[in-house]
Every structure is written in structure tokens, then in C-alpha cells.
Amino acid sequence: MPDNKLHWWQKTIAYEIYVKSFKDSNGDGIGDLKGITSELDYLKKLGVGALWLTPCYVSPQADNGYDVADYYNIDPAYGTMADMDELIAEAKKRDIRIVMDLVFNHTSCENAWFKESRQSRDNDKSDWYIWTDKPTNWRSIFGGSAWTYDEKRGQYYLHTFLKEQPDLNWKNPKVRQAVIDVANFWADKGVGGFRMDAVLYIRKPEVFKDGKPDAQDDMVAIHNMTVKQDGILDYLNEFKTKVISGRDMFTVGEANGVTAAELPQWVGKDGVFDMVFEFSHTQIDLPDEKNWSRRRSWTLPQWKSLFSQSQKQIEKLSNGWYPMYLENHDIARSVSHFLPDGAPRVQGAKALAALLLTMRGTPFVMQGEELGFVNVAWPSIDDYDDCYSKSHYEFAISEGYSKEEALEGVHRFSRDSARTPMQWNGTKNAGFSSSKPWMPIHDDYKTFNAEAEKNDPESVLNWYIALAKLRKEHSELIDGDYVDIMPYDEQIFAIRRENKEKKATILINLSSQTAFYDENLVKNAVQIAGSDGMSTKGKLSPYEAVVFEECI
Ligand code: NOJ
Questions:
Q1: Closest CA to 51 of 315, 292, 367
Q2: What DSSP element (H or E) covers 16?
Q3: Nearest Cα to Cα of residue 480 among 322, 359, 363, 352
């Protein structure tokens, strides 16, 4: 059994719920908290012990909840605080802890803090946000200037993302205390963890460079100017001490910009978080943050080396841990993202599942990933909801790409692909809602849905359930070391997980051709799982995944 010294969240599986799209209980076409509570048994079967909810606080929804107007209340579209208390309690009965998404780099412009701040230059909250008379030439992550002029105050305010998402001024100790109070409010409710949104941007450089706000060509990405500023760790250590220390919960930071070499400062006993989501392996095909129409080719050995670099760093740390993910609500579906066009969908999804659930660390599954969801490819940019997709499309057009080329980039990378409603069954609206869903359902819902897959022994869903069970029964898959045993192989991802008693060898063919390996690698081992049933030692069919085990 897993080493008891590990924390509960290191031994379990985490699952991300895009609240708006998981399950609608009241027929308004929008997912809600009661809907989630009604599906806890489904999640339990998947081995889930931590449930990350995307923000469900009061919000005008300019960025689907990542613009928070009131951190202390639930958005009426999602239910009430009583629904949240019920969800936390019902989840707990099933050994599932809720993980809240803390959005503290910015608020909504509808937040009372901002409403007060914009009133004048000398009110109580006048410096809770970042105001200037002279804006810099920074381009926001969602496109356009990162500064917006506020008529009322007669100054510009900074927003890393949309203009509806003004950045908080963490330099002000009162702001730091305010977010600490919010986090303690949720921690006191008994949630099991926090995912910290956009957290690398919370500290801004001391001096703003001279502004050239208009000429797009002269603009610089705000990410490059504000990510990981000196002193950020002081803020996060303060947060850790005043919120997390002494509690049985975990933190996972969204860390677009922390390199493998820097991990020791960020995770583990001496780091500020328990885990951080790195971006390197998901951005391997993205050469240019501004424009999705460009795409970089990559090889399996390059991809594998990214995982190995992180694993090597994490391994050295006391309590350092890795959150393994291939999907989330901001990126494409993994089958469409990491496998070549035309790869067989079910086998491909099963191969990726084997990787997700056998890597050292806590696997984070995105809703629908366990059903083998793929990207949507809607015919017009107007069909898309995601602001980021729209800005990439416009940017591509402004750079001279054709509409078709710009749309193809959106098809490949749009965040909407991960946000389409969950497919529960093959009835109208896929069992997600009794009325028209807020976002169209993928047109493959009659085949790819939870009910159909539950009844199909070869489905992606049943393979996930089998792998979740395997993790529970084979301790080396939880606490064993990680070694990439065939780093240069172009087809096979071969992982060794070993603890004091047992050694597992996971062999995953991530190519469309039969692949061969030295059968001595598993000479004395027995097969404990196989995506295609029993496997012939030394050989893997396209996208076949197999797990062998031997005692030491
Ligand atoms: C990262 C979140 O994951 C994303 O969905 C959001 O748009 C930005 N942060 C802004 O909060």
C-alpha cells in the first residue's frame, strides 16, 4: 500500500471541474453546484479525492468567473452558499475534498474594492490597484494595451488580462491581508486545497518604463515585464504562513514561467507551494504566445526530457511534489494536442491516460478527458466564446494570415475545446441540461458520453477506472521513483517506477506504427494492465500501453 508518510493529496487523483459546463440541475443551461453534488459518485468511481472547481464566486463573467466581484459569495447562476456547504459535506463523506480556485492577481471591475478605488486618488482603497498617469507600452495577455483609462478617477489602471480584470496592488499590506482573509474564510470551511491563479504576476516592478501605449509593434508582452519579480516569494511566504501552515490542505500554483531548475524555491518544504503547474510540456508546440497560427514541430524525446527535468528537481526536494496534467480549461484537448492528426481516438486517449496516471505526482484530470474528448472546430470565430481565441484570431489576421489560417489556429488551441458541456448520455443536450446549454455541446456526444462508455469494456472511461484502481493497489505507482528508461526512443514513452518492494515498467507507444523494445526490460515481470488486453513482450501495437510489475 502507498507510503503513509505521504499526504492524502499525494496519493489521490485530482479532477478539474469547469463549473459552468459540468452539470445543470435547474434547467437554465448553466452548470451549477447542485449538479456537481449529484455526480459525486461518478467521480468517486474515477478514484478522485480532490475536486478543483473553477471560480464560482459572484462574477459578471467577463472571463467566465476569473473576474471576481465578491469572494465571499457564490454566483447565483451556480447556486448558493448553502449549496456549496452541501457539496463540501457530501464530497467529504466520499473522501473527496474541494479545491477552490483563488484569483488574487486581479478582481473584477465590479468588485467593491475596485469601485471604491476608482472614486478618487485619496480614498481608503485608492492604492489597492495599480494606477498611473503615464501608462507603459505593455500588451495585456488577452491583447491590446494593459492599461485602461478610467474617466471617474482620471487615471489609467493596470490589467494583466481583460480591462474588466484590474490587477490588485500586492505592495499594499492591506491588500495582502484582504486576500489572506478570503483564503482563511474558505480554508475554515474545510476545503482541501487552493489552486492559485496567475500567481506569478502578483508583484509588479518598482518603476514603470516610459509609455508608448499606442503603436502595437512597440508593445511588449506584460508577461515578460511582470512575471516572477524579485520579492514575490516574500508575499507568497507570508500567505503560506498566515493561511496554509498547520492545516491539512495543499496549494498548487499556476506557474507559467517557473523553470525546472527553479522548482526548489517554489515547491516542497522550503518552497511557497506544495506543487506548481509548469507549462513547458503543454507549450512545446507553441512558438509564439501572440499567435496561435504558428506551430512548432516537436519530437517525443524532446517532450520526454521536459518531464524528466522536472522529475529530477522534484525528487531532490523534501515534500516536493509534481502535479501531472495534460489538459486544463485553458488548453486544447490532449488527443488533439499531443497526437498527430488522424491518430485513432480511443487508443490514443488510452495511451495518454496511461501517461497521466502513472507519472510520479498527483494526476489532474480535466472533465471529459476521461471520456476521450477532442477539440471542437466551429466554422466561424463568432461561434467561439473565449476572449483569448478571439484576440489570437484578430492578431493572426493583422499579421496577414488568411481567415482560414487564423481559424485553423483557433481550432487547434482554443480554450473553448476544454469548456464544452460534459456529455453524460446520448439524449438531447447530452444529459447536461434540460434546456439549451450556454455553450454548444460537441457533436460527437452520442458516441462519447459517460453512459455509453460505462457500458463499453473497451472505452476510455473504463481504462481510466482500471488505471485509478491500479494506482491504489500498486504502491510503487504512488511513491516509487521515476526514471525515463528509453529517453531517446522516438515512439515509446517508457517509465520505470520503483520503490523498496516493487518495480513497475510502463511502456506506451505514442506512435501510429508498431514499436519494438528490448524484452529483457520486463523479463521477470508480469503484466498488470494493458490497454489492448494481453501484450506480447518486446512489441507494442500503435498507441498500445502496458504496465508490467516485478518484485525486488
Ligand atoms: C488563468 C486562468 O486559468 C484563465 O482561465 C484565466 O483567463 C486567467 N488566469 C485570468 O484569470
A1: 367
A2: strand 13-17
A3: 359
Percent of the chain with pLDDT over 70: 97
Q: Establish if 190 belongs to a structural domain.
A: no
Residue 376 lies in a domain: no
Q: Which candidate, 95, 4, 93, 77, places its Cα nearest to that of 35?
A: 77
Using CB distances shorter than 6 Å, the residues near ligand 1 are 63, 66, 103, 161, 197-198, 254, 329-330
Mean pLDDT of all residues in 306-335: 93
Cβ–Cβ under 8 Å, residues 45 and 78:
no
Handedness of CA 325, 375, 44, 464 (dihedral sign): negative
CATH of the domain at 510: 2.60.40.1180
Contact 195/100 with Cβ under 8 angstroms?
A: yes
Closest ligand 1 atom number to CA of residue 415:
5
Residues in the chain: 552
In a domain, 520, yes or no: yes
The Cα 140–Cα 135 span in angstroms is: 12
Cα-based torsion angle of the residue sequence 71, 72, 78, 81 in order, rounded to the nearest 10 degrees: 160
CA separation for the pair 227, 540 (Å, rounded): 43
188 Cα to the center of ligand 1, angstroms: 25
Catalytic residues: 197, 254
> 155: which 3 cell numbers?
487615471
Q: What is the pLDDT of residue 1?
A: 35
Domain membership of residue 517 as a residue range: 474-551
Q: What is the DSSP string of 416-441?
A: GGGTSPP--SSSGGGGT-SS--SSPP
Angle (deg, nearest 10), helices 460-473 and 345-358: 20
Which mutation among 101, 103, 106 tests ligand 1's pocket best, with the greatest number of atoms within 8 A of CB? Answer: 103
Number of domains in the chain: 1
- Give the pLDDT confidence of 420-442 residue by residue, as tens digits: 999 999 999 999 999 999 999 99
The ligand 1 atom nearest the CA atom of 103: 11
Q: If 0-12 CB within 10 Å is exposed, 13-18 middle and 19+ buried, where does residue 303 land?
A: middle
**214 within some domain:** no
Closest CA to 252 of 231, 266, 239: 266
Which residue out of 52, 53, 64, 66 has the highest number of ligand 1 atoms within 8 Å of its CB and is therefore the one to mutate? 66
Burial class (CB in 10 A: 0-12, 13-18, 19+), 440: middle
Instruction: Give the E-state strand segments of 313-380 in sequence order.
Output: 323-325, 362-366
Dump pLDDT digits (tens) for 366-379. Answer: 999 999 999 999 99
**Residue 523: what are its φ and ψ, rounded to 5°?**
-55, -50
Q: Name residue, grid cell 511502456.
A: 507
User: What residue owns the CA closest to ligand 1's atom 4?
Assistant: 330
Mutate to test the pocket of ligand 1, among 161, 227, 414 (most ligand atoms within 8 A of CB): 161
Which regions of 377-421 does DSSP assign to beta strands (E)? none
State which ligand 1 atom lies nearest to the alpha carbon of 161: 10
- Residue among 222, 205, 118, 510 at smallest CA distance from 351: 510
